[in-house]
Each structure stands twice: as C-alpha cells, then as structure tokens.
Amino acid sequence: MSSPIKPPEDTIDVRDPRIAESIHRYWRKNLWVMAACLTVWAIGGLGCGVLFADALNEFSIGGFPLGFWFAQQGSILIFVLLILVYGLALNRLDAEHHRELEQIRAAGREMSEPSGP
Amino acid sequence: MSIKLWTFLFVGVTFGTYLVIAWLSRVRDTSGFYVAGRGIPAMANGMATAADWMSAASFISMAGLISAMGYAGGMYLMGWTGGYVLLALLLAPYLRKFGHYTVPDFVGDRYESNAARLVAVVCAIFISFTYVAGQMRGVGIVFSRFLEVDITIGVVIGMAIVFIYATLGGMKGITWTQVVQYWVLITAFLIPAIAISFKLTGNPIPQIGMGSRLIDDGVPLLAKLDQLHADLGFASYTAAFEGGWDKLNVFCVTAALMVGTAGLPHVIVRFYTVKTVKAARWSAFWALLFIAMLYLTAPATASFARYYMIQSLHGKAASELPSWFHNWQRTGLILWLDDGDGRVAYHGPAATAGENEIFRSGKIGGAELADIRVDHQRWLSSAGIEGRDGRQVLRERGLSGPDRDIIVLATPEMAALADWIIALVAAGGLAAALSTASGLLLVISSSVAHDLYFRVVNPEASEGQRLVVGRVVIGLAVVVAGLLGIFPPGFVSQVVAFAFGLAAASFFPAIVLGIFSKRVGTVPATAGMITGIGFTAFYIIGSVYGGLPNWFFGIDPQGIGVVGMLINFAVTLVLTPFTPAPSEPVREMIDRIHEPEGAGPAVVIEATPEH
Fold first, then answer.
1. Neighbour-count burial for B286-299, b at 16+ CB within 10 Å, e otherwise
2. What angle do CA B603, B102, A9 make, to 5 degrees?
3. Which of B102, B345, B382, B431 has its CA 20 to 30 A from that of B87?
4. Quick check: A41 and B81 CB within 8 A?
5. Chain B residues with CB inside 8 Å of A103's CB?
6. Among partner residues A45, A61, A84, which is closest to B285 by beta-carbon distance?
7. B210 CB near a chain A CB, below 8 Å?
8. Nearest CA in chain B to A33
9. Does A17 contact B at CB distance below 8 Å?
C-alpha cells in the first residue's frame, strides 16, 4: 500500500514455467465453464424473456403465460442458479489448482533441499 | 398508536441503530475507509451489495412501473438482475484479485495511462452524482408523505445521518449499516406482499399467488387482469410487445441495463471489500439472491395492486371508494374528476378519449389544481358552457392515471394491514434510499481523494492526509447531494438512463478487455471509451434535449448504451493490431489476476468460514 505501483501482495511466482502452465490450464477450464454459463444466461434471459417471449406466451405454466413468466420470474431464478453453479464449479477448479500448486511447491522444496544448509 | 407515531418510532429506532453501528465501526486507515479493510464476509457483503443496489426507485417505484407496463416492465427486472451474472463471471473475482480501491485504479494501472484514469474518474463521479441526487430526493419524499414534514427538512435529516456514518466509518461503517438496512427494507417489502397475496388468492407466497385463481370469482388473476385491461382500453398485461414497446427496444433496454449494472462503480467496488477471490464470487451470488427476494416479489405486488386498484375504483360511487383512495388523493398521487354520473371511470389510452376520470397531479401545485377543480365543477354544472373540462386539461399534460409510486406506498392500506406495517414501509423506503446514497457517496469520495488527489496530484501524501481528504470529500459530497435533493434539477430523472448507458459504454468494455486480453493497450482502450461515451452521450442528449427522433433504428435512449458498448468494443479491437501491446509488468499483472490464489496466504482461503 506504500507505493501505488507495487503489485498486490502475492506468494505465487507467475514466471515459474510450471506455475504458469498450471494457471494456463486453470484459465482454459474456467473459460469453458464461463462460456457455458453465459450461453444459458443469454438464452434464459434475453432469449426466453425477450426474443421468444411472444412465441412462448402461447404456452402457459402454473397460471402464467410462459413468455411473461420468463420475463418476470424465470429469468431471475435462472440468473441466481447460474451464479451458484458457476461458484460451485470454480470452487472445484480452485481446489484442483491449489493441489497442483502444492505439488509444485513440494517438488521445489525437494529439489532445493540438497543445496540448503 | 397512530400511523404517524409508529412511523416516528420505526424511523427513530432504525436511525439510532445506524448511528450506533457507525460508532462501533469507525476506521483509522484508508484501507478501512475505502474497502472496509477487506474483512467483510461474503454473505454480509452480499446483503450490503443488495441494499446498496436497491434504491428508492427499486423500493418505491419499480412495482408501480411494472403494474403500469405489464410484460414490458420485465425489462427492468431482467436488466437489473442479469447484470449480476456478468459481474460474478467476468468482473468481480478478477477485480478483487487486482486489489487496490477503485474502478479508475484498475483502468489507470491496467492501461498504464493517467488519461484513461481521468476518463474513468469523470465517468464515476458523473454516474454517482446522477444517482445520488435521486436518493436524497427520495428520502425527502418519504419523510414528507409519512411524517408530514417539509421535503427540505427530510433531506437535511437524511444528510445528517449519512454524513455521520459515512465520514466516521467509511466503507466499513457503510457496509455494516447496509446489512441492517437490507433487512429493514426487505421486511417492509415482503410483509404487505404476502398479506395481499393471501387476501386475494389464498396463497401466502406472492410468486405462486400471482399465477393462482382469485378467491372472489375463481378466475386466474393474470387472465382476469388481461380481461379487465381489454375491457377498459389498456394494453394487455401479459402479452409481449404491445402498448409501445417493440421487441428491438425491449431487447436493447434489457441488455443496456444488464451491462450498465455490471459497469456501475458503486456496485463494482463492493467486491473489493471481501477477503478472497472466492469470496468475491460468492458474494455476487449472495447479492443476487438477496436482490431476487425483492425482484421476484415486485411483479407479484404489481399484479395484485393492479387488480385491486381497478376493482376498488372502476364503477364505484363516491361513497363506496376505499379509505386509501381518500388518503392518497390528499397527496395528489391519485385524483378523480367525475364526468357528472357520480361513478368513477378508470380507462386506458385505447378507450374513447375523455372517458378516463383517474389522474395524478404531477408537478401541478395545490392552488393551480384547485383552480382546475373549480373550472371543472363549473364546466359540469353549466353542461359544458362555462369553465373547462379538467380531465382534458390533465390529459393534455400527460397526467392520466395514478402516480406509479402509489402502488407500493398504498398497498398496505389496500390490503387493510395494521398501522405498524404501513409505518414499516416508510422505514423501508428510507433504508433503501440511504443505503444507496451512502454507497454512491463513497465512490465519489474515493474517486476524488484516491484517484485524483493521491494517484495524480500528490502521490507523496501520507496515510493520515489521504484519510482526511477522503473524509472532507465525502462530507462535501453529502452537502452537494443534499442540495441536489432540495433543489432537484429538472434533468435528474432523465439522466438515470444516462448513468446506465455511460457505464455500459465506458467501464464494461474497458474492464472486460483489460482482464481477458493481454494484447489490448492504452490507445485502443482510451479511444474505445471515448467513442463509446461520445456516441451514447450524443444520442441521449440529442433525443432528450435536442428533440431529435430516435434516429438509430428507433432505439429508445434507455437502450442506446448497448450500441455504445458495441462501438467501444469495435473501436478497441480494430485499433489493437496497429498499436503496441502492454508492457511486460502489465502482462504479468494480468497473469496474476487470472490466478485465483495469492490474494493472501493460501491457508486463509481454505479457512474462510463463510461457506
């Protein structure tokens, strides 16, 4: 906090090639999960709630015309569930990434041990 | 106890609680002042974000808006919730990992440019002032309607309360106050909705009650509303794209509100206050869950109140009118000008012109309104020879139908609920307005004291100096916001659309590309922001003040932010191949942002108690 350009406190060296590779793997998986969630977001919200609302209104569910229900109830429920699913999926990816980092650190310690005091 | 006494009691108790919290959470350093020391648990941050987000407009006006618009009202519901998905997936975790205090911080550091930082500062301050003026006005209005004090005095009381807890506790004080304010406002919103749902449909869950059959005649509520709307000349309640909102406009406004939500600085900074990257993701989930409690209930309240309003007014004689009508007629939110048959006729725009007898007074003053009534009475008794048809006068001024705020404000009375519930609504409205105002004031303070003073003007400033400047600026901002609330400039309501459009066209593309691309550099990002803002500002100003038609495919100014955003993305991406990539330290910073740990020791992440 003392200097404005100081990077955030970090215990991970992103220049280490093994760590960089782990971050890369994590990031690719994250992008896939994200893309899947955003697709559902677009279809559930802007799709069912707006673009297909007039067509969906031909059907009804629990006393609601379906398009109207998506616009005023369904889309919001989908949004809440999406963030939940994304959070859970990323918890798993985070844990996986954390194990990889631990392994790299353990390997690093073993390698550096002989040269230590 | 009378309603007024209950209101004094609730308002007194809640305000006292806010002050106690302020004292308990006073801070001594800038980290506490700007980001609450990054010690807020995800769930508490979710509640605070929800209270921060749900303003006087969400609490008081939104249900009324949906009630009047039917299906098309869904664009506000979808727009103001869908943005949180973008926040949780694309922005919050990475901005938390980036650290620092503000949105302009990220823009300035990522694009290595004080010019980009300044563009971001100006946008953040403009957006926040636009918003906060409406909140202080909301505080004054709630005070004047429930406690019969002058709007000015109401605004001053609100200013004093915000001043104390914002300057003492900064973000920390604001956050814990907002947690309490969330519960005040959600209780005040849910209790009347549950009661009226039970009364009309026999089902206490408003979201199910909305789709259920009415106890009165066994017809499904929504089918009944569609029928009543067709009979009385209103656009259908459930059918899509009728009554002036076509598919393109509903789409654009929804999308603009979604993207704008994700780009609003007072929402984004909330995610800087949590402990870890993971907590940032989860607090976005909690925030949307808590917001959804109100946003899923508002459309139900809207439909119940719509039905109740038509049923209890249309075709009734003066003696049969309910007491809530008389109470709120005094405030001018609803007016009845009879055509001489002694029965209320409430009609929509498709009915024969002049048939409707229900109006609102809008900005017309008491004296002028009395004149209109006198003229109308003369017009009636002389069978149209003298005086003037008051209905025509009000219709020509665009004041047909009741004020939309009446839906939430009068719902407890419509459902004949106890006096203390009506008082609770007043406390809820105040909580909604104050919580949003305080969050915005903090953004203004941090934009000036941190982004401008510390990062640009005086980088040598000590911790103590920065804290003093932060407190002074937030104090000044409260005063300016209060003045804007007491003397509202005519443009405030129109520029809220501008706030969202601007956020969508400036921050969102700059931040998303900053996080997801290692190639986009200073020049394309700044050029993108400026063209995006320029187009959006030109379109909205031209349409609202310049009298230009909606020349871009007929898109409403509320939805133009989407086009501004696309222009921003396009300009940035087209220029990128011709300009240099960011420096090595910045590329390394982006790698570090992608990595989910390291915001503190890994052990701390595993030990976070909130999930």
1. bbbbbbbbbbbbbb
2. 30
3. B431
4. no
5. none
6. A84
7. yes
8. B89
9. no
Query: pTM surpassing 0.95?
Result: no
User: Within an 8 Å CB–CB cutoff, is residue B89 touching chain A?
Assistant: yes
Mean pLDDT over B303-331 rounds to 87
Question: Which residue does chain A place closest to B590, by CA atoms?
Answer: A14
> Beta strand B335-336 with A60-61: parallel, antiparallel or unpaired?
unpaired
Q: Which of B384, B402, B420 is the last residue of a domain?
A: B402
Task: Give me the residues of B, 421-450, that contact A with CB < 8 A.
Answer: none
Contacts of A71 in chain B (CB under 8 A): 71, 74-75, 77-78, 240
* Total domain count, chain B: 2
Q: Which of B402, B421, B452 is the last residue of a domain?
A: B402
Decide if A46 is inside a domain: yes
User: Do the Cβ atoms of B288 and A79 come within 8 Å?
Assistant: yes
Alpha-carbon distance of B449 to B362, in angstroms, equals 39
Identify the pLDDT of residue B564. Answer: 94
B54 part of contact set with chain A, CB < 8 Å: no
One-letter amino acid identity for B250?
V
pLDDT in the model for residue B604? 31
Q: Sorting pLDDT into bands at 50, 70 and 90, what band is B435?
A: confident
| Residue B338 lies in domain | 333-402
CB contacts < 8 A, A to B, total 187
Asked if residue B353 and residue B299 are part of one domain, the reply reads no
DSSP designation for A49: I
- Strand A64-65 and strand A60-61: the pairing is antiparallel
Write down the pLDDT at residue A110.
66
Q: What is the pLDDT of residues B243-286, one digit of tens each?
A: 778 899 999 999 999 999 998 888 888 888 888 888 889 999 99
The verdict on residue B320 lying in a domain is no
> B185 and B108, same structural domain?
yes
Find, among B504, B533, B509, the residue nearest to B520 by Cα: B509
Q: What is the pLDDT of residues B330-343, one digit of tens each?
A: 778 888 988 888 88
CA distance A117 to chain B (A): 26
Is B392:B380 a contact under the CB 8 Å cutoff? no
Instruction: Tally the domains of chain A.
Output: 1
State which amino acid sits at residue B418: A
Average pLDDT on B381-409 reads 83
146-175 in B: which are within 8 Å (CB) of A?
none
* Domain of residue A76, residue span: 42-107
Listed in sequence order, the residues at least 6 apart from B354 whose beta carbon sits closer than 8 Å to its beta carbon are B339, B389, B391, B392, B395
**Residues B413 and B323 sit within 8 Å (Cβ to Cβ):** yes
Q: In whole angstroms, give the CA distance from residue B100 to residue B450.
A: 10
Residue B296: how many CA atoms within 13 Å on its side-chain side? 22
User: Residue A8: closest CA among chain B residues belongs to which residue?
Assistant: B99
DSSP-assigned beta bridge partners for residue B358: B336
> Which positions 180-209 of B are in contact with A (Cβ < 8 Å)?
207-208
Q: Are residues B92 and B156 in the same domain?
A: yes
Check pLDDT > 70 for residue A111: no
